[in-house]
From TrEMBL:
BP term (GO), one: defense response
Source species: Solanum lycopersicum
EC number assigned by the record: 3.2.1.39
Family of the protein in this entry: Belongs to the glycosyl hydrolase 17 family.
Keywords: Glycosidase, Hydrolase, Plant defense, Signal
Record InterPro entries: GH, Glyco_hydro_17, Glyco_hydro_17_plant
UniProt GO molecular function: glucan endo-1,3-beta-D-glucosidase activity
Pfam families: Glyco_hydro_17 (PF00332)
Primary gene name: LOC101260664
Lineage: Eukaryota, Viridiplantae, Streptophyta, Embryophyta, Tracheophyta
Cellular component, GO, one term: plasma membrane
Signal peptide: 1-25
Protein name: glucan endo-1,3-beta-D-glucosidase
Top-level taxon in the UniProt lineage: Eukaryota
Length: 424
């Protein structure tokens, strides 16, 4: 592809790929959102993805232009069905039509390995969406079985960390009581089909909500004294690992100790509004670069030290059409012209050619029976600081017991676990 389409990327990229990429021993994932009208053409995005050593991409749709551009690159893909598709996907015939039109044509050249059905559905507190979620996942899986694709493509859904009722200490992690039955059925589906359990986790929100109480070093993977889980005696020097292990504990508490947990979103904005503490290029650089170093070291969490981290950084690009506060439009590692949003420690390359219009994050070519969602519909992705995710700070603050007095927790209405009943 590079020989047939010469551009300023080529020379520096070739040198980079020859000498740098082989050292990236652990898989790095990246979220590729497209709620923007100024992003590079997908073929020009391939070198950017390779420049950071990413081998996995999560899309919020099944954009055919992206899937074609990454054919024969070896990059693995999670493609997605937005929340607005769940009701339709309950119908097995529509699910099979969607898979046949949006997944099957791109295999095996493009390595689609997973379909994410819905995003943070359980924390929208929408009973219709919640009731539709598992049936939709089952229908999509059945479609894969019927098309003999189930051995190479799995089905999952991404959850907000706010599905946890208790997260501190990590060993006492537990799901919200009202969600336990639903989560249990979903996890059982994962175990039967071999698919991963996805969680979106943002330590940034904890810092943003309480910058005077939260240790910035603790959330940015910087040197700090950390915390010790009083039940497991495990030491945590960063919030993300504590969050991940709280999820492991919550899964164990409902009888599932060996589920593959993947962090489907985590990141830090490089810019924000006046009331968005910590949203700076330097903090974003520290968070994402330190995280990528940890992934490259194949370092597991204290509770799962021998398990590779499976993490998708949010996000590849700043997206200028995302609604909400300024931070929403500034999570990207790259600006739309392909320049780095802040120094990433990798060679800079150029990807200036842009699309003529926004894909809106929904660029897939659907079957006739499953139309694209209207521009006003919510996919669960448009704003990661939606009400369902804003409640994330409630969960994340429970990690801050070593930094916040009990009086602070009580005054904010937060509770920690009763260790007499929550020790696993």
């Amino acid at each position: 592809m590079m020989e047939s389409n010469p551009n300023p990327i080529s020379s520096s990229l070739l040198l980079f790929l020859l000498f740098f990429t082989p050292t990236m021993v652990a898989p790095l994932g990246i979220n590729y959102g497209q709620i923007a009208n100024n992003l590079p053409l997908p073929e020009n995005v391939v070198p950017l993805v390779k420049s950071i050593g990413a081998t996995r991409i999560k899309l919020y749709d099944a954009d055919p232009h992206v899937l074609k551009a990454f054919a024969n690159t070896g990059v693995e893909f999670i493609v997605s069905l937005g929340n607005e598709y769940l009701a339709k996907m309950k119908d097995p015939s529509k699910a099979q039509s969607w898979v046949k039109n949006n997944v099957q044509p791109y295999l095996p050249a493009t390595k689609i390995t997973c379909i994410a059905v819905g995003n943070e559905v359980l924390t929208f507190n929408d009973t219709i969406l919640t009731d539709n979620l598992l049936p939709a996942m089952q229908s999509v899986h059945t479609a894969l079985v019927n098309l003999k694709l189930d051995k190479q493509v799995t089905v999952t859904t991404a959850h907000s960390l706010a599905i946890l009722q208790t997260s501190y200490p990590p060993s006492a992690g537990a799901f919200r009581r009202d969600l336990v039955n639903c989560v249990t059925r979903i996890v059982d589906f994962h175990c039967k089909t071999g698919s991963p359990f996805l969680i979106n986790a943002y330590p940034y929100f904890a810092y943003k909500g309480n910058p005077k109480q939260v240790s910035l070093d603790f959330v940015l993977f910087q040197p700090n004294s950390g915390i010790v889980d009083p039940q497991s005696n495990l030491h945590y020097d960063n919030m993300l690992f504590a969050q991940i292990d709280a999820v492991h504990s919550a899964l164990a508490s409902i009888g599932y100790k060996n589920v593959c947990v993947q962090i489907s979103e985590t990141g830090w904005p490089s810019k924000g509004d006046a009331d968005e503490a910590g949203a700076t290029p330097e903090n974003a650089r520290k968070y994402n670069c330190n995280l990528m170093k940890l992934i490259g070291q194949k370092k597991g969490t204290p509770m799962r030290p021998n398990s590779d981290l499976n993490i998708y950084v949010f996000a590849l690009f700043n997206e200028n059409l995302k609604p909400g506060p300024s931070s929403e439009r500034n999570y990207g590692l790259f600006k739309p012209d392909g320049s780095q949003a802040y120094p990433l420690g990798v060679p800079a390359i150029n990807a200036a050619s842009t699309n003529s219009s926004s894909s809106g994050g929904s660029g897939s070519t659907p079957s006739a029976s499953v139309p694209l969602p209207p521009a006003s519909s919510s996919s669960g992705y448009l704003a990661i600081t939606s009400d369902s995710v804003k409640s994330l700070s409630t969960v994340q603050l429970l990690y801050l017991a070593p930094f916040i007095s009990l009086a602070h927790f009580v005054s904010f209405g937060y509770t920690t676990c009763n260790t007499n009943v929550c020790i696993l």
